[in-house]
From TrEMBL:
Keywords: Oxidoreductase. This is NADP-dependent oxidoreductase. The keyword Oxidoreductase applies. It comes from Azospirillum oleiclasticum. Residues 12-329 form the Enoyl reductase (ER) domain. The keyword Oxidoreductase applies.
Length: 334
């Protein structure tokens, strides 16, 4: 079997030897255990955070540990009655093609009629629930309000804007290229999109948000967060979902937003969340999202990289903007 390990602490962008792929023998499953064959690996911005020296929201991955990730896999041998041979499962484990587990952290992969497995894995497991919970429960937008989302052409952001539209809001995305902005407006139905690499972001956003911003769904931090804070309306809400522009800045003090004063000037509510705290609501979230996907009201794009051996280089795409839509690795056939 092959498995990725955290080889060397790295501050800044991940380097070629930060993670290393090793070949290792696979033992037989013991009592109550099973062997899983990986099919899809989700690459998530937070994977970089797990390798950092920050005080984070869960156990970090330590140097010498296998790299951790979220997988869909098939049971190929089993001494665990909860997981028969042939069953599909999903859960958090290591970046590996085959492995032995007692099933801790795995659940049967839920089936969504009419939605292919890769799309169900890519959209309904992490990105969709994050977008739905963050926007509706934390952001609480009202019809007619303006919702701005950063990293809008990414896995979470693309869904946020479309849910905002479903709820009668004006949806404005911030993304890093003209092509991404065009995709958001022409294919996904965003009202406007602003390319943060082209011109002054505050002025671009101001033009795209003539009535100001009521809900800022923040995925990026840094200059994006500052631009959003600048244009917030009174009693606006800032949903702090992610701060990806800072994730390669481990071992460094990351400067705070310079427009934080608007939290008081505009009487904002600023709230962070971690979707893993809300797994109990997954059936509700997935039911809604799957319905919208079937109706064509939530469209998306999967950015699939083939081969476990390419997982580490693929992960860096998230921090350079090399992905459009949900980034994942196909490890084995469905
Ligand atoms: P995405 O698919 O959104 O990919 C990340 C995107 O971020 C890139 O495509 C890039 O797009 C943009 N980006 C990267 N670096 C920068 C930068 N320096 N400045 C501006 N934009 C940048 O990844 P995910 O959907 O996995 O994650 C999106 C966000 O959601 C992350 O912040 C992540 O941490 C957060 N998240 C939070 C969860 C929670 O429970 N709170 C759960 C899941 C995700 P571009 O070309 O536009 O620059």
């Amino acid at each position: 079997a092959r498995r990725w390990y955290y080889n060397r602490f790295t501050s800044g962008a991940l380097e070629d030897d930060t993670l290393v792929l090793r070949e290792e023998p696979l033992r037989d499953p013991g009592p109550g255990e099973m062997e899983l064959r990986s099919i899809h690996l989700s690459l998530d911005a937070t994977n970089r955070v797990w390798l950092s020296d920050w005080d984070i929201y869960m156990e970090p991955v330590r140097v010498g540990d296998p790299m951790r990730g979220f997988l869909m896999a098939e049971v190929v041998r089993s001494d665990n009655p909860a997981f028969p041979v042939g069953a599909l499962v999903t859960g958090m484990h290591t970046w590996s093609d085959r492995f032995i587990t007692d099933g801790t952290g795995f659940v049967p992969f839920p089936r969504f009629p009419g939605i292919p497995l890769d799309e169900a894995f890519g959209v309904l497991m992490i990105a969709g629930p994050t977008a739905l919970y963050g926007l509706m429960d934390v952001g609480r937008p009202k019809p007619g309000e303006t919702v701005v989302v950063s990293a809008a052409a990414g896995a979470v952001g693309a869904v946020v804007g479309q849910i905002a539209k479903i709820h009668g809001c004006r949806a404005v995305g911030i993304a890093g290229s003209a092509d991404k902005c065009r995709w958001l407006v022409e294919d996904l139905g965003f009202d406007a999109a602003v390319d943060y690499r082209d011109g002054d972001l505050v002025e671009g956003l101001r033009a795209a948000c003539p009535d100001g911003i009521d809900v800022l769904f923040e995925n990026v931090g840094g200059a994006c967060l500052d631009a959003g804070l600048t244009l917030m309306n009174d009693f606006g809400r800032v949903v702090v979902c992610g701060l990806i522009s800072t994730y390669n800045r481990t071992a460094e003090v990351v400067p705070g937003p310079t427009m934080f004063r608007n939290v008081i000037m505009r009487r904002l509510r600023v709230e962070g969340f971690v979707i893993l705290d809300h797994l109990d609501r997954y059936p509700e979230f997935q039911g809604k999202l799957a319905g919208w996907m079937r109706e064509g009201r939530i469209k998306h794009r999967l950015h699939v990289v083939d081969g476990l051996e390419n997982a580490a280089s693929a992960l860096t795409l998230l921090y350079s903007g090399g992905n459009t839509g949900k980034l994942m690795v196909r490890i084995g056939a469905e």
